[in-house]
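Question:
Write out your own:
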Amino acid sequence: MKKSNILVIGSLNMDWIIEVDHTPIAGETLLGHFAKEVPGGKGANQAYAASSLGGHVTMLGAVGKDPSGEKLLQSLQKAGVNTSPIQANSETGSGMAIIYLNKMGNNSIVVLPNANNTVTKEVIMAHDELFKVADIIMLQLEIPLEAVYEAAALAHKYHKTIILNPAPAISHLPNELLSKIDYITPNETELSTLTNQPVTTVDDAIIAAQTLLRSGVKHVITTLGEKGAVLVTLEEARHFPALSVKAIDTTAAGDSFNGALAAYLAEGKSIEEAIVFGNQVAAITVTREGAQSSIPFREEVLPTTKNL
């Protein structure tokens, strides 16, 4: 079976995970229990997941010329990602994320972009050839927005499938961008921020997703944590329940879902099959600590047609 090629354009961050009893509030000082260094970044996590789950993946991004940058590249290479287009920038350090992980397994994240900010529109334009040979383009919002817009424009020009994970949350994306997107994959917070509508239930997600459909997006797939995922198109709205697991760390749950989605679509599977697979992968991810360290390989995920 010939698989489609996946091009991921996005961020690479070294994550510092700090375990705390609860998420700190304004003015509060907490004692952490440990700090752990784990390769991450939304772009890198999604590339890692798509590749470890069987996809043919190339990543375009930037790291610093520092030990963190070397570790970030090595982690992706371990998963089989082609990292040759990733720039090593000597003028800035690698991206960094500080993650506060509470006892419930939920996290709060502060990101320092650093080298990720050097992935400019001009960098995207200089890698035109990557778009020609790719079939699926994966985008997020941890690099400059002008680069995201240019990447979507190039992908659209060459008639490629575009997956946009609109994270971190942003209050507005222009219709010029949204109209080019085949699959947009917000979580409930990101969907609420994008549409200025409350999203706490499955029905809320369906209503808010219709706003994005009117902007030209073809498929809206909202991830709702323990509630699963919701697919909304002009033709249907469908809920896919999550698997019941005990979560210990939700870091990279959404990224692993996105990587799984791309890997299955690259194999010619239906969007419904891809969402079920994504739910399976995310369920495994949240039972482990860290970002890329928590993402399963293909042989760890049992094939199933549950929820189809």
In short: The mean pLDDT is 93. The CA atoms of residues 17 and 36 lie 5 Å apart. The two ends are 23 Å apart (CA to CA).
